[in-house]
Design brief:
single chain, 18 strands, globular, alpha/beta, 30% helix
Length: 398
């Protein structure tokens, strides 16, 4: 088979996962990442359903288990830190907020990088600025350095992908869900344990504190709001905004906001979905969040990235014509993506009550839902069509 070069934008989850499979099928993957080094920060993500089978086929399930965050489950608490409802970690069958395979995003990125760095060329501190499709090859321009001719290009650089517009223009839309979220790391406190805690404050605000495997705590703060362009603020302005919104939130907000002031890994964005009418054009394609971000509230982002990378690489190995491969990839993935992006009724509003009465009613509903008989019906909090795709076997994966 001809060894075709595939240039991939993005070195988080989808990009290195795609590089893994492409190298196995005899391609020459090249990953270009805008950051100067592998980005190891980030919050908990989970690997569930079909994605678990993908990581088994990759041979990295054991690595993921070894890097597990150790989270035992989720407790919903009030302003006095009294537990109102408790959901233990899911079994192998899934069905919970905390999955059996919970790992920090940066830890999974490093596992994938370590498994691909000997078979993939990585270019850090650079980004794609232009694509010229000649029909038989693509000439790629970069922010730094000379142009390069490659056979195919794939955008895997996240929901705010800069490469996506070079491939499919302004066709995709970013669909805001009316929720803003921020993630960052804080020192572990005496009240922290192996259980995640979710606190609701009046005013449609919530704080989640989750344990990690490195002795710190991962905080995320959420508040309902129409899209206001807050994601375009400077880092300092975003911190100031968060501090204002949560100033009177109660519970452990003073501790969290004090840590926010010095946090260096703050991520803030509007919670959104990427709705793209097509995932390819010419000799270029999209994968992962750049193509079909389902939003964090779906719990499916990492799993879609892993499955999408597996299917895209497999179809490229199966078809001699890239156009046929891209069409087969989209045909197989589109129903799965549609299910992942279809959120339960009321999400995310139902999880962010505006009044104290609303918070009290939510806690009552959660207490009922946490009973053993109803626990598996908590899908109104976490949408998870994790097994709704038949994974093909690609014979060259050997």
């Amino acid at each position: 088979m001809q060894h075709r070069t595939v240039l991939i934008a993005g070195a988080s989850i989808a990009g290195p996962a795609l590089a893994f499979w492409l190298a196995r099928y005899g391609f020459r993957p090249v990953v270009v990442e805008r950051a100067g080094a592998l980005r190891l920060g980030g919050q908990n993500i989970d690997v569930q359903g079909a994605a678990r089978e993908v990581v088994r086929r990759m041979g990295i399930e054991g690595d993921i288990r070894a890097a597990n965050t150790g989270e035992r489950g989720l407790r919903f608490v009030d302003e006095r830190d009294v537990t109102k409802a408790e959901f233990p970690a899911a079994s192998a069958d899934g069905g919970g907020f905390t999955q059996e395979l919970e790992i920090l995003r940066g830890d999974l990125a490093k596992i994938l990088y370590d498994r691909t760095r000997d078979t993939t060329e990585y270019i850090f501190g650079n980004q794609i600025t232009g694509l010229r499709d000649h029909g038989d090859r693509v000439t790629v321009s970069f922010e730094h350095g000379a142009e390069r001719d490659v056979d195919l290009v794939v955008a895997a650089d996240g929901i705010r992908s800069r490469t996506r517009a070079l491939i499919v223009g302004d066709e995709p839309t970013i669909r805001p869900l009316g929720l803003y979220g921020s993630y960052f790391t804080i020192p572990r406190g005496a009240s922290d344990s192996a259980w995640a805690r979710w606190y609701h404050a009046p005013g449609s605000r919530s704080i989640i504190l989750r344990p990690d495997n490195v002795g710190t705590t991962r905080a995320s703060l959420w508040f309902l709001s129409p899209a206001r362009g807050h994601e375009r603020l400077s880092a300092a302005e975003q911190k100031a905004l968060i501090a204002r919104v949560f100033a009177d939130a109660g519970w452990e907000s003073p501790r969290v906001l004090a840590a926010l002031a010095d946090a260096e890994d703050v991520y803030f964005d509007g919670v959104s979905q990427v709705m793209a009418p097509r995932w390819s054009h010419g000799r270029a394609a999209l994968v992962g969040d750049a193509a079909y971000c389902p939003s964090p509230v779906s719990g499916m982002g990492a799993s879609l990235s892993l499955v999408g990378a597996y299917v895209l690489a497999g179809e490229l190995s199966r078809h001699s014509d890239h156009r046929d491969a891209f069409a087969a990839y989209e045909k197989r993935m589109r129903p799965y993506v549609d299910l992942a992006q279809k959120l339960p009724p009321g999400v995310p509003w139902i999880a962010h009550p505006k009044s104290r009465l609303g918070v009290s009613l939510l806690h009552t509903a959660l207490r009922v839902a946490s009973s053993p008989l109803l626990r598996r019906r908590e899908g109104w909090l976490v949408s998870s069509p994790a097994d709704k795709i038949a994974l093909p076997e690609y014979s060259n994966g050997g």
